[in-house]
Amino acid sequence: MVKATLVDKNGFRKGAWSKEEDDKLRVYVQKYGHWNWRQLPKFAGLSRCGKSCRLRWMNYLRPDVKRGNFSHEEDNLILQMLEELGNKWSIIAGKLPGRTDNEIKNHWHTNLSKKVKRNQSVSSGLVEKEQYRETSQSEDSQTEKSETESVSVNSPPKPHHQPDILEIFHSPQEISCSEFSSMNNDSVSSSVKGAADGFSPAEIFQDSVSDFWNLPFLADNNDNQDGYHSLLFTEEVYMHSYAFNYDDDSIDWIQQMMQELQYSN
DNA sequence: AATTGTCTCAACCGCGACTCG
DNA sequence: TCGAGTCGCGGTTGAGACAAT
């Protein structure tokens, strides 16, 4: 169910994520936030491209990702919003707490579109049967399949094109979009957005200083097989000072540390 | 038990939007 | 205003799970 791991031309790993990789990414993001997805894998000790890290975090590792089956209410809301907006998966995901756009998209392609197709064929079948009754009682519904095959379900319904889907698909159930708070936490994604993960910038700074020698990527460098290896400690210092807006004293302290390091090398 | 077909969903890809210097 | 870097979105792919034969 997962793609085999391989390496792309840039030396980045591709395919299925291992538990170790998940752990590294989770620990790093929860601790420091995702201040820059492109740079993040270097510091987290991952041989992945930033894009892959972002996707893995957003779709799988985020603590608020809800797993499991979709409820009728969720199905209803998805169909309703597809009606209104078309295939704006990210907007729809914003109305479904804990659901990702990818998950909703998959759910549409694997389940909802088929159910819609089935229900459309049932409803069209009923009409056909009524017509058949008027002309002939002996025909069976063998033609139903060929009829429904002409209905395109590979693409989501275009806005305002299928007014009866909801009524057909589910028992009437009023769902108000306002019942769901928009939870587009992902817009909170810049350097100090560690706060979105439960850390205030000040806490992150304090944390990063106090745990300076225990940074995840440093601890993991032993098995770091990409080109970063022992990514210069100074770069880590620089990035964190950049990301967390240190005060002058902190910067002085960092510069002092860097000088000491250079001397010690 | 072996083979084949279908389904599921995590992950990849390309592109447009956005941000910043 | 422009270009480079980055982000986020939607479409698509493909490996593994599962069902049917």
In short:
Residues 9-61, 62-116 form the HTH myb-type domain. It holds the Pfam family Myb_DNA-binding. With 265 residues, the protein is mainly α.
Description:
This protein is an all-alpha fold and 265 residues long. The protein folds into two domains: 6-64 and 186-264, Arc Repressor Mutant, subunit A, CATH 1.10.10.60; 72-182, no CATH class. 54% of the residues lie in helices and 2% in strands. It is built from twelve helices and two strands; from the N terminus they run E-E-H-H-H-H-H-H-H-H-H-H-H-H. The chain has helices at 19-32, 40-44, 50-61, 72-85, 89-95, 101-135, 143-149, 165-169, 201-210, 216-219, 233-244, 248-264, and strands at residues 6-7, 13-14. It has a two-stranded antiparallel sheet with strand order 1-2. 22% of the residues are buried. The chain binds a DNA duplex (21 and 21 nucleotides) through residues 1-4, 14-17, 36-38, 50-52, 54-56, 58-60, 87-90, 101-103, 105-107, 109-111, 186, 189.
Number of domains: 2
Calculate the mean pLDDT score and round it: 61
Low-confidence stretches: 130-154, 159-265
How many beta-strand segments?
2
| Proportion of beta-strand residues | under 5%
CATH topology of the largest domain: Arc Repressor Mutant, subunit A
Strands across the major sheet, in which order?
1-2
What's the level 1 CATH class of the largest domain?
Mainly Alpha
Backbone CA Rg = 26 Å
Largest sheet: 2 strands, antiparallel
Which architecture name of the largest domain does CATH use? Answer: Orthogonal Bundle
Question: SSE order, as H and E?
Answer: EEHHHHHHHHHHHH
